[in-house]
């Protein structure tokens, strides 16, 4: 059983823990966050492997790990889109020492989805430490569906355990909201250790935000706002919604003399408006995080009009016409799944089951680890569908109504 005996005390000091985080971040940490931003932009490309080839190449890997014999990039799987917009990809990136789960955004969610919340304390079996924890219902639903079609991230667990790399989560826009829900679930279970979201609106109430902060202290968990991106303001501060994680405001357009063309401000206080976004800002600021949307590196400036125009003209309702989901809300409560999980540094023999190995072998045989999302029509189809996922509270059952 995964022990978290000191969590109650940790929660009591979570606010102080975030406030005591570094007022500045190292250049290496900026490099690390920037890579997550590039990946969140690459999620809008149908071929992230090709898009990211210029960034995650052999030369970059050898600069950080001269003796590494690993491939600089391994595409693990694409997943979705589900009915609720859960979509993205997973890649192994040795230069980052990470297996990164990337959630794609979904334009139009703010007009299609309501602002209801769901009890994630009960949904994710967070116990007495999170009795009143709630999260954005649509983002939670999207995560549940993605979790289901990937068999609770079976391939990700396999690659984390066989490579020794750490599990990291990122996303942009609505994908950044889903990434935060994923981070709560997977961080609580001791699986994920890093989380970075970009241009995301508020997701949690104060109780859930406090728990998330306790799981990803300081630089391990950041929410990033580019220039005057208005999307983080779409859900205002309230009893139901507040910002979580360390704020990171990047300013620039990729052409200045600042690091990577951007200056930055760190916000350790969630009430710091510098990292809140700007309700009067240009939506174009939402479409470029270190690189234009749909790209994964140079040029770090300008626009990607083909992808940007498609993004802006695609409402969430379009996904309902083509996306499928096997999610069925259970009618009776099922026994909770165990919280006993192996840490990211554990050996494959501890939790890399024969099923996981077989799934990875099948994926490799079918080209899933080297091809791209365009070839993964249903995302992790090699895995099959999980059975009854978890008991969903009444609010979650009705959120697609």
From TrEMBL:
UniProt cross-references to InterPro entries, sorted A to Z: AB_hydrolase_fold (IPR029058), AB_hydrolase_lip/est (IPR051299), Fungal_lipase-type (IPR002921)
Keywords: Hydrolase, Signal
Top-rank taxon, per record: Eukaryota
GO biological process: lipid metabolic process
Pfam family membership, one: Lipase_3
GO molecular function, one term: hydrolase activity
Signal peptide segment: 1-21
Keyword Signal: yes
Domain Fungal lipase-type: 102-237
Protein name: Fungal lipase-type domain-containing protein
Organism: Rhodotorula diobovata
Lineage summary: Eukaryota, Fungi, Dikarya, Basidiomycota, Pucciniomycotina
């Amino acid at each position: 059983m995964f022990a978290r005996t000191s969590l109650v005390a940790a929660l009591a000091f979570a606010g102080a823990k975030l406030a005591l985080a570094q007022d500045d971040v190292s250049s290496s940490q900026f490099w690390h966050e920037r890579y997550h931003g590039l990946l969140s932009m690459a999620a809008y490309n149908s071929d992230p492997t090709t898009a990211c080839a210029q960034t995650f190449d052999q030369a970059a890997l050898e600069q950080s790990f001269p003796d590494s014999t690993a491939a600089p990039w391994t595409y693990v799987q694409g997943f979705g889109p589900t009915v609720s917009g859960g979509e993205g990809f997973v890649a192994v990136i040795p230069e980052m020492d990470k297996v990164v789960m990337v959630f794609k955004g979904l334009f139009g969610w703010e007009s299609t989805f309501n602002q209801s919340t769901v009890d994630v304390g009960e949904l994710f079996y967070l116990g007495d430490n999170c009795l009143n924890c709630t999260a954005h219902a649509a983002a939670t639903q999207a995560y549940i569906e993605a979790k289901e079609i990937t068999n609770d991230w079976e391939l990700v667990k396999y690659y984390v355990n066989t490579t020794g790399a750490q599990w990291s989560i990122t996303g942009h826009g609505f994908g950044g909201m889903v990434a935060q829900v994923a981070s709560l679930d997977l961080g609580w279970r001791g699986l994920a250790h890093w989380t970075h979201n970009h241009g995301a609106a508020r997701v949690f109430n104060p109780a859930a935000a406090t728990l998330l902060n306790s799981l990803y202290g300081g630089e391990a968990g950041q929410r990033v706002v580019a220039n005057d991106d208005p999307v983080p303001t779409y859900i205002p501060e309230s009893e139901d919604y507040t910002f979580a994680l360390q704020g990171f405001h990047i300013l620039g357009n990729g052409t200045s003399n600042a690091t990577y063309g951007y200056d930055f401000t760190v916000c350790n206080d969630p009430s710091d408006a510098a990292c809140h976004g700007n309700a009067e800002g240009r939506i174009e600021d939402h479409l470029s995080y270190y690189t234009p949307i749909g790209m994964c590196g140079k040029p770090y400036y300008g626009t990607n009009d083909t992808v940007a125009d498609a993004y802006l003209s695609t409402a969430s309702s379009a996904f309902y016409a083509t996306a499928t989901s096997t999610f069925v809300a259970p009618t009776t409560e099922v026994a909770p799944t165990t919280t006993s999980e192996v840490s990211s540094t554990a050996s494959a023999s501890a939790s890399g089951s024969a099923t996981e190995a077989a799934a990875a072998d099948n994926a490799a045989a079918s080209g899933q680890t080297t091809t791209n999302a365009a070839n993964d029509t249903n995302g992790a189809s090699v895995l099959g569908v999980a059975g009854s996922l978890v008991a969903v509270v009444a609010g979650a059952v009705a959120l697609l109504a």
